[in-house]
Structures are given as structure tokens and as C-alpha cells.
Request: fold
Amino acid sequence: MSLFVPKFDETVIVRDAEAEVLGGAPVGVKLLADSSASGGALSTVRVTLGEGADGARPHLHRNSAEMFFLLDGEAEVLSGDDVLTAERGDLVIVPPNRPHAFAATPGSAADLLIVIAPGVERFDYFRHLQRIRLGEATPESLLEVQELYDNHFLRSDAWDGRRG
Reply:
């Protein structure tokens, strides 16, 4: 087992009013701390989803685990071939190389704190998603940056069949 020691010397504090926010209803992303702020320890965002809104389609990270903490509401979380339902106060941690996705459950909104560790510079990934939402980039353009953001998309029959 290797030990990763992050390299940063100052306390990181992100004031709510100063955090960059992308999107809005039905999906909003608040950029909290990128990898560079924590010496590579973690990257963290807060995602708010309207009722039944999709958060992220199935993907995996080769080099990082991803943690989902439900601040409020209820969400479906894919982990491997299992679709879990997480409620307020629940924590789900998906290991590296495990397919995962998340969405608000039908009839419910969800507010999630998401942490990726070790961190990856991902704020530009979320800005890229925003450009896609605004029609400034194509969805296919994400395939060109999978390696850069360690975000590898895949198909999941379990996820596709969860509401059907």
C-alpha cells in the first residue's frame, strides 16, 4: 500500500457566497475545492438536483474513489451493478475502477456533497459540462477529455433499467 501525503500548508476555506456556481434548475453544481487547493488530497463539489434529475451518467475513475454524502433529499446511486437508494445523512463511497452514476429519485430532489480522493483538477470538467448545456460544445467532446479528468464513460444495463 502506498501512502499519499498531500502537499499544502494553509487551511482551505471556501465561503458559500464566493463559490462558483454552474447550472441551476434542474442541476446545479457549486465548485468548492479543486485538487490544487488541497495539495492533491481531494476535489469537492456540491450538486443540487431537482425532482428525478440526472446527476451523472455511468462512468468510473481509474485513480480516485468518489464519496457521495446526501445533505438532503433522496438519490439513486449506481455502484457496480447495484443501484442503491441513499437518503438524507447517508454516505456512499465508490472505489476506483467501479462504475457509478447518480440521480435524484423520481418525486424527490437531492442535495449532495461529492468528494473525489485523491483529487483531480475537475473544475474545468464541470465548466465543460456547462458549455455542453449551453450548446457551446457537443456531448461527444467529453470523450476527448476522459483521460485528462479521469472520467471514463461506459454503459450500464443496471442503470439504464432502473426506472423501466
Remarks:
- The CA atoms of residues 107 and 163 lie 12 Å apart.
